């Protein structure tokens, strides 16, 4: 059994899709990153970097429990556990998939994160607003143009559905939030619709906060916890 430390977020969704595709048994461990659960000693024993996703596989190598963090490492672990599934068997194509997986976690995810931060969350810094929005906006557009070019003549990033697609898809679904209009990247839009049709992509990540009708969006306290700053209070 695998414990998945979860919160409704694109990086967690990658792991959910992989677990579902591979048919591996898992259970949710709700980790409220708005309430600061990621900074608890118990959580930091699993992920010293205080972020979701993280997993504990109670049946890890040698039958012993293993804790893993960082979405790319978790995806590769799950693939290996399932005998190399979700990666091409051909070595050249497998390495191609690795490149796109690394591209997502080192470029697409972080740049999208910065773009949404400066578009939606950062308190106004006057003249500097435009600078940050321009910098991250341009970089994220460049990355989507690159993705679109890659998908122009193939159904999936390395022809067959792989970890590379799983890593990119949940972020592409949030493109609006980081200021990207996916309709101007038609190959990305078609690829995204293809993946969205898979049952694994439709699984709902449980969110106990949604059962509380008084909770909607981020409160100033949750915002301050998440960004470890009081700055957000100025915007609310
Ligand atoms: N590079 C990490 C990024 C993980 C990440 O940024 N997780 C966010 C949610 S999507 C988080 O836990 N944020 C809480 C925080 O920064 O305190 C990965 O790919 O797993």
From TrEMBL:
It comes from the Bacteria. Residues 1-86 form the GST N-terminal domain. It holds the Pfam family GST_N_2. Transmembrane segments: none annotated. Residues 90-214 form the GST C-terminal domain. InterPro entries: Glutathione-S-Trfase_C-like, Glutathione-S-Trfase_C_sf, Glutathione_S-Trfase, Glutathione_S-Trfase_N, GST_C, Thioredoxin-like_sf. PANTHER family: GLUTATHIONE S-TRANSFERASE GSTA (PTHR44051:SF8), GLUTATHIONE S-TRANSFERASE-RELATED (PTHR44051). This is Glutathione S-transferase N-terminal domain-containing protein.
């Amino acid at each position: 059994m695998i414990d998945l430390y979860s919160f409704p977020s694109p990086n967690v969704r990658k792991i959910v899709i992989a677990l579902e595709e591979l048919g591996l048994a898992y259970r949710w461990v709700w980790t409220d990153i708005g309430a600061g659960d990621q900074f608890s000693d118990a959580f930091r024993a699993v992920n010293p970097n205080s972020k979701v996703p993280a997993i504990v596989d109670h049946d890890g190598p040698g039958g012993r429990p293993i804790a893993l963090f960082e979405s790319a490492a978790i995806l590769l672990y799950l693939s290996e556990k399932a005998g190399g599934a979700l990666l091409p068997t051909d070595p050249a194509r497998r390495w191609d998939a690795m490149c796109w997986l690394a591209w997502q976690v080192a470029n697409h995810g972080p740049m999208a994160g910065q773009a949404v931060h400066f578009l939606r969350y950062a308190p106004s810094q006057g003249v500097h607003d435009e600078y940050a929005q321009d910098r991250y906006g341009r970089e994220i557009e460049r990355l989507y143009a690159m993705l679109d070019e890659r998908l122009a003549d193939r159904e999936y990033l390395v022809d067959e559905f792989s970890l590379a697609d799983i890593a990119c898809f949940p972020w592409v679904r949030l493109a609006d939030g980081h200021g990207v209009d996916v309709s101007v990247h038609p190959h990305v839009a078609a690829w995204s619709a293809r993946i969205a049709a898979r049952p694994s992509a439709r699984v709902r990540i449980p969110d106990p906060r949604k059962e509380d009708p008084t909770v909607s969006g981020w409160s100033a306290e949750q915002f301050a916890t998440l960004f470890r700053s009081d700055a957000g209070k100025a915007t609310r």
